[in-house]
Amino acid sequence: MTRNKLRAAAMRLFGEKGYDGTALSEIAKEVGVKTPAIYAFYENKEDLFMTVFREAMESYNTYIQELSEEQNMTSARDSLYRVLSRQYEFYQKCPEESVFVLRYMVFPPAFLKETIEEAFLQSDELLTKAIEELIVHGMETEAIRDQPVQPLVDSFLNVMDGLSMQYFYYTSREIYERKLNNAFETYWNGVRSNYN
Amino acid sequence: MTRNKLRAAAMRLFGEKGYDGTALSEIAKEVGVKTPAIYAFYENKEDLFMTVFREAMESYNTYIQELSEEQNMTSARDSLYRVLSRQYEFYQKCPEESVFVLRYMVFPPAFLKETIEEAFLQSDELLTKAIEELIVHGMETEAIRDQPVQPLVDSFLNVMDGLSMQYFYYTSREIYERKLNNAFETYWNGVRSNYN
Amino acid sequence: MTRNKLRAAAMRLFGEKGYDGTALSEIAKEVGVKTPAIYAFYENKEDLFMTVFREAMESYNTYIQELSEEQNMTSARDSLYRVLSRQYEFYQKCPEESVFVLRYMVFPPAFLKETIEEAFLQSDELLTKAIEELIVHGMETEAIRDQPVQPLVDSFLNVMDGLSMQYFYYTSREIYERKLNNAFETYWNGVRSNYN
Amino acid sequence: MTRNKLRAAAMRLFGEKGYDGTALSEIAKEVGVKTPAIYAFYENKEDLFMTVFREAMESYNTYIQELSEEQNMTSARDSLYRVLSRQYEFYQKCPEESVFVLRYMVFPPAFLKETIEEAFLQSDELLTKAIEELIVHGMETEAIRDQPVQPLVDSFLNVMDGLSMQYFYYTSREIYERKLNNAFETYWNGVRSNYN
DNA sequence: TATGAATGAGGATTCATTCAT
DNA sequence: AATGAATGAATCCTCATTCAT
């Protein structure tokens, strides 16, 4: 119980204030426990952080994995849009995990640099593959103009990354949703075939 | 002299390791001076940080401002592309400033949250206006299909933000350049008129 | 069972790393038990230490006591030599007890200073008496030159103390045995009568 | 100034209470300074300890070195006796250094084991050589019976080691001096020639 | 302008100990 | 007899900051 509450508090605080900006005492206090209690569950600050990091990554990867699984029946347009809105959903449902992942993906603490690079590459590959399938499927059904696939994947990922950043500095829901839709629409215009 | 060296070192270190992760002693050491020397030039850590922050923002804003100024003669396509490549140039020429701006734009330390939000909004407005002009110009010359402007601006900014993030986690130059070109091409495809 | 294993582990670790340098958790771990289990058998760290201390002293004293008991039949030379070799035997058979006794005899933790001084004096007296008897016996049989007894006792104890220290910093068996024999030989030369 | 006072306080406290039993705060308090001030002069606790250790060793070695230098004119008996009384002098003049050296020679903290063994061997060799010269000199002048040298060196060192230990647990000056004289007398009886 | 000395505040971590189970 | 959870006290150490020089 305490173990999990600690994990949750750590996720939130590390995400919000950074590794160095978060004192173990704050995490403990948030859980209603004294600092040394943390050491009953985690070896040290790094260990707590790593545990949280792994959990956040897993949570994020799970969400990505599920993309490939539900793609099937829907149109390419819908399923690509679905990717963006699922990402948005994830940010809303798991704001702590999201901030955490984003923060440490881009600005890992020194001791995590390598681990994170690996985790990132792995995650990136998964996502790339999922998007690729959707796009290929779109070409097969002629929703997307026939053309080299990689550029379309690249630019879709670019849209996603852009939306990631923007989620965190446009706090207004409406503005974000507008941006999401507009970004997607332009992307779709750029890739779709002229038949529909 | 020392004052400037301190600013530069602070820029680099605050950017790389974060506000809390950077000790004044590290900054001093990088400059070859003892910690208390810092206090001859800056009131305290926050002051040093703020100075650096203002400088980075100014550097970034200058680069944006210049966008509007040189837009004129070239085609809309070229000038939009120019925006992306200038951003890229900025990242390459001023990597310290870039990391710094990106980091504190997205993850400001608590005491800076408000200041940064203002600075961000201001900067964002500048950029938005500049892009808007380019796009309107593009429509006037019929390079861009006639349509509401805001969505095109939104999605261009989205492309830019995406490229920002990607610059920091795709370390390979080639990959990044490919991604930049692909993102732009898709964007352009999505907005251009069918005449060219 | 556990009680004894704890005692043994404590003996070894307190002897090797000192009172302050040994954490209860180490002792527990060596026994394969969690720290609080110690409190089922011992009141606290001091109590455990004292128990161990008493045991080590008893073990040491027993060995000394036995000296007097077997002295009888043999020649003075042999029985004095026997004292040194029995001390050596003790070090080899009970290395933990030996280190422990030596360490806390010379460097008792503050809270034990008085207790240990008493224990030491008592032990010293026992030993002194035993040696004295051997020497007197040696004079009676004219193996040892007739002369005041105390100086001979003093210097024999000095030889013993010297060998104690040396045992702990000359790790090589051979060197130690050589030193033992040489020390004894010189001593014997210094005290023996000229008849043999 | 503070640096030296710290060294002195550390010498005393480390010697008296052991490495783990001595808190930096105690050392600081003895000097009339707050704990962090220590870090202006020493890297950390180990560094302070090592500095003190080196100083104590040097002090001890110097004393040994001087033995060889003044040996010349005096009789072998006098110069050997001189060694013991100089050792005694050293204990009295530099009680802190003495306790320190003895304690860590016999019971080094784990992180010092190797360093100390080296230091010890080196010191031991110096001393051995010095004693050897005195004894050889004694044989040349026929004060000492002609015989193999090593045993006489061994047993003299044994006497010295014995007196080391005894100095620390016989607190009475008179008793110690008696023991010193008696030990020496017996030793000398054991080695001297019969001519004098 | 720069430094050495010093400090208060705070941070991670260890440890002996307690208590409910 | 043994453990998991928790804590108070203390330890080493870092850091921003001050001040006299």
Automatic annotation (TrEMBL), chains A, B, C, D:
Keywords: DNA-binding. GO terms for molecular function: DNA binding. It holds the Pfam family TetR_N. It comes from the Bacteria. Residues 1-60 form the HTH tetR-type domain. InterPro entries: Homeodomain-like_sf, HTH-type_Tx_Regulator, HTH_TetR, Tet_transcr_reg_TetR-rel_C_sf. The keyword DNA-binding applies. Transmembrane segments: none annotated. The keyword Metal-binding does not apply. Coiled coil: none annotated. Residues 23-42 bind DNA. This is TetR family transcriptional regulator. The lineage of its organism: Bacteria, Bacillati, Bacillota, Bacilli, Bacillales.
